[in-house]
Amino acid sequence: MMYQPTDGFRWTARLQSLEDYQLLYRRSIEKPEEFWGEMAQALTWFHPPDTILDADLDLADFSWFGGGRLNACYNAVDRHVKTRPGKPAIIWAKNEPGEYEIITWRDLKHNVGRVANVLKAHGVRKGDRVCIYLPMVPELAYTMLACARIGAVHSVVFAGFSAGSLRERILDSGARVLVTANEGPRGAKRVQTKAITDEAVEGLSQVQSVLVVRRTETHVPMQAGRDWWLDQEMSKHRGTCPVEWMAAEDPLFILYTSGSTGKPKGVMHTTGGYLVYAVTTHRYVFDLQPDDVHFGTADMGCITGHTYVLYAPLTNGTTTVLFESLPTYPDAGRLWQVVDDLKATVLFTVPTALRVLIREGDAYVKKSSRKSLRLLASAGEPINPEVWRWYHDVVGEGRCPVVDNWWQTETGGVLIAPLPGAIPCKPGSATLPFFGIEPVLVDDEGRVLEANGASGNLCIARTWPGQARTVWGNHQHFIDTYYSRFPRLYFTGDGCRRDEDGYYWITGRVDDVLNVSGIRLGTAELESALVAHDAVAESAVVGFPHEIKGTGVCAFVTLKPEYQDTSPEQMEGALKKQVRHVIGPIATPDQVRIVSGLPKTPSGTILRRMLRKIASGETQDLGDTSTLAEPTVLDELLKQQLQMESRR
Ligand code: WT7
C-alpha cells in the first residue's frame, strides 16, 4: 500500500509533488556541478570554490569545491550568533527525566571558543587528531566544534566501546589529546569512562593530555601531568578564538566503523563536501522549517549523531536536542515525554528502539500529546513494515510522514529516502534516491541490472559531496573495500531490491558485517576477540534474525583439548564476557555454541552460509552439503539446533 503525503503536511513542505522531486533529481544528475554549486551557497565561505568537482573513479580520488575555504564551526556557530544569539542551539536532555539545559548560540560560541583555546594550550594544532570518548554531554558538542574551529580532526569513539577498542582507535588515529568524563550516567547505569580511558592509554606515551569532563560529583584518580579537569582548564581561557580557514578537502573528522575484514577503519570526511551534503540532505529529507526542534536519539559515536544531531541542524540554524539517556529510561514513555517537554517537531530514531517500545504497549505513547511532532524518521537498519505502521499510526496518529532513510558512515548523509512532501511511501522501503545519487544494482558477476524488479548488490555510480574520501592512513584499503569488487562503482555492502515502481528495498548486508541494533560489527573482529581467549581453538560468527536487535550474534566455537571438559554453561559465560571485554557490551554474543568441529570444505574454508542457515533455524534448506570435508560435523550442528528449538 502507498502512503501519500497528507495535505496538511504537503501545504508547508519544501517539495510538494513527485514532479517537483523528479525535476530537481534530473537536474542534479544531468548538471551535477551546477546543482551542487548552488547548494554550496547555503554555507558561508571565506573564499568561494573555484571548481566544483574533480573526480577519478579508477583511483577513487574525489575532490569537491576545490579552491574553496571555509570553517565548519564558523558555519555552525558564529554566523548564527549574529542573527539569533538567544535562540537555543542545543537543548541538553539529561539522563534523569525532566532535567534540561538550554545552550543558546551565544553560550555555544563562548564555550566552544574556550575549549578551542584549551586544546591549543595542550598543543593541538591544525591537522592534529583529537580523540573524544564522552557520554552525550554538552562538552562533547563543544569539543567537536572546537576541533573544527582550529582545524583539528576529531575522532569520536562511542562510550560503549571497551578499553581495547578505544586504544586501537587512539593508536590508529595518532591522537595525542583525549577528552573523556569522570563517568557517564546512562539509564540506571554509570559508564566508567575515565577508568576505561585509564586502561586504554596505560603505557601509551603517545597520549600527552587527558581532559576530563566533570559530569558527576564522583571523584576519579587523576594522573598528575597527564589528566586535567576540563572545567578548570576552561576557566583559564577566554571564549574568543579565531577560526582556521580550511581548504574544502581538509579533513573534518574520522569515524571508525567495522568492515568485513580486519580492524575497524577510520572513515575520513572532509570539511566542504561533508558540510554541503549534510545541510542539503537535512533541508530536504527532514523538510527543514525555521522553528524546528530536531530530536535525534543517535549517539554521537555514530555518523547519525555527527550529521543530524550536530553539524546539519546547527549549520542550518535549527535547535537540536542532545539526548543523554535511553528510550526506555525510566520507562517506555521517555521519548514522548521529551517530545512534549521540548515541543520537538522532528523525531529521528532507530528501528531497534521502536521494536522495544512497541512491546511495552501503546499506553505509554497515548498518555503523551505529541502535538508538536511533524515528521518521524528512522535509519540504521531495515524497518519492519509493521514497525513502520506503528510509528506512523500510533506515534504520528497518521499526521506525520515516516522518513525511512538509508545511508552509511561512509556516505556522510542520507542517500535514499522519501522526501516527505513529495514521495509516497511504502512501509519498509527507503523509496527513491536523493539528489545527485545514482544507485546501481549489480549481480555477483558485476553485470548491471537495468530493469526494475531486480535484486542485487547495491552500488553507487558516481561521487557525491558527502562521500568519505579515504580510510585514515590507508587509501589502498579504501580502494580495496569500496572500489575493487565492482570497478568504478562504490560498493555499499548492502543487498537491495528495486521494485516495479523503481523503489529501493534494502535487504541487509551481503558482506561479513553484522548490523546489531543499528551498530556495525565485523564478524572477523568478533572472531578475533573469541580466539584471543585461551580456551578457544577456532570460531565462526554469523548473524541471525533477532526480534529486537534486527540481527543477533551467534558464535560457533571449538575448544582446545585441555578445555574440553569445562561445562558448556561455564564456557559460554566466559566467552560472552570475553567479547564484552574486548569489543564492548554491544558485541556480546546472543548465543555461544560449543561444537567439536566447524563445517569446512576440503581446502579448509568455513562454510559460513551453512552456519548462517543453521543459526537462523532454516535447517531444511542448507544448500549443497556435498562439499563438506567431514559430514558428521553437520549432524552435530543440526542436533544442537533441534535441542535449542525444543527448549524454547
Ligand atoms: C548500514 C550502515 C543510517 C546511518 C547510520 C548507520 C544499514 C542504514 C538503513 C535503512 C535498511 C539501513 C545498512 C548500511 N542501514 N540505514 N534505512 N534501511 N538498512 O551507519 O553504522 O555505517 O551502518 O546500516 O546495512 O550499510 P553504519
UniProtKB/TrEMBL annotation:
The keyword Hydrolase does not apply. GO terms for molecular function: acetate-CoA ligase activity. Residues 21-76 form the Acetyl-coenzyme A synthetase N-terminal domain. Residues 525-604 form the AMP-binding enzyme C-terminal domain. Residues 78-462 form the AMP-dependent synthetase/ligase domain. Gene3D superfamilies: 3.30.300.30, N-terminal domain of ligase-like. InterPro entries: Ac_CoA_lig, ACAS_N, AMP-bd_C, AMP-bd_C_sf, AMP-binding_CS, AMP-dep_synth/lig_dom, ANL_N_sf. It comes from Archangium minus. The keyword Plastid does not apply. Transmembrane segments: none annotated. Pfam families: ACAS_N, AMP-binding, AMP-binding_C. Its EC number is 6.2.1.1. This is Acetate--CoA ligase. PANTHER family: ACETYL-COENZYME A SYNTHETASE, ACETYL-COENZYME A SYNTHETASE 1. Belongs to the ATP-dependent AMP-binding enzyme family. Keywords: Acetylation, ATP-binding, Ligase, Nucleotide-binding.
